[in-house]
# Entry
Amino acid sequence: MARTTRTYDHFCMLARALEQVGDRWTLLAVRDLLGGPRRFTDLMGLLGGITPKTLSQRLRELESAGIVDVDREPGRREVWYRLTPAGEDLAPAVEALFVWGLRHARRPPTPGEKVHPEHLLKALRILLDQTTAPRHPLVWHIDFVDDGAYTLAYDGDTWTLTNRLTDTTPDITITTSRDAWTRHLMTPAPDRPSAPAGVELAGDRRAIEQFKRLLAHFPDIDG
Amino acid sequence: MARTTRTYDHFCMLARALEQVGDRWTLLAVRDLLGGPRRFTDLMGLLGGITPKTLSQRLRELESAGIVDVDREPGRREVWYRLTPAGEDLAPAVEALFVWGLRHARRPPTPGEKVHPEHLLKALRILLDQTTAPRHPLVWHIDFVDDGAYTLAYDGDTWTLTNRLTDTTPDITITTSRDAWTRHLMTPAPDRPSAPAGVELAGDRRAIEQFKRLLAHFPDIDG
DNA sequence: CTGGATCCATGATGATACTG
DNA sequence: CAGTATCATCATGGATCCAG
# Structure
């Protein structure tokens, strides 16, 4: 009896969930789609070592599970993948695993390990959500000259990461490169230079001070 | 270059977490260990179709990841597996996936699907945690004549499931069988008989009413 | 009986190249 | 840009066997 998809044959909702998102690469694809719609090659880049075959297979599985919507318009080359509401609902699970990794699987990047600034920003967002509660809303624009631009915003309740610059006027704008940003964030906070090379901070003096204060214990989630 | 364990080679804490717990069966083993220490064969039973080879491999991986502690005492036949504190910290992630499954992957049990009462109880615990807040602490004993016994308790803040009968005096005691309990819980609440066959409820009249009321919308997590 | 190990078959994934 | 095609390798499942 040829089984079309691998199942656990348990009547358990965790098993059911893992049948949908438990395959290798699947939750990493969801992680990258949580930032907003992406094209196939965007995902290829973010997912590092995945092969196109595996990625297209995963995307089809996610589509048929109702987790991803595919946007193909005739006459347009690009295909955009976006999460459905059911896909967005995976955010708490992805985040819980992320938090666990931050606590229990944190190691400096090994040589040859792909460091993508978006994933650092995601870790930062989660950490901010768990450790701080600023008094007022905040908007930070982070512009990677060699990669893309992101908005990290606090709405008075939670922090949000968006993979583009929002229309809102930012409190600060960070202009940097992937390497400089990675180097800056991976430097233990006490050792960080106040004017790090390759990281330009623009904005109000107090907003910049607040930014540095809020980043002060990244990436230590404890204490 | 022979890679001993499969990695993603991403500097991302979600990828790191999934390298530890992302393999097939791993989170299901953690799920079953969250209830308390278990022996190899307990896990074999709870995990349904896993082969001993895969289970022992997963347990060794979990042990070397610091998620599971193995208790081998000389002169004792059994080997007990238990979660370390790092393993217990997986509870939020397991639960978030469970909740997602409850919302988005709920289907009645298909014929041939193993139904373990413990997993139903776990779903019930999560649901109670998300939907109710009784005024006072509660202790329910559930005794399966053909399987084992569990305690579902509310301490004034959260619900806990334990895979044995605790010493506390229970508010109610349910004596049932795997089949009868499954049949009862899988019947839509409005159709449940007030004196279901094979499910004996013992205890104070008001406690029994409360029990029925609290189970009234299982397994619907929404609304 | 518990806690595995071993052998083999098969399916899932990876590397590389190529195409509409 | 968005994938397929082909081939090689690895992980998993099924069955069986074994030692304490």
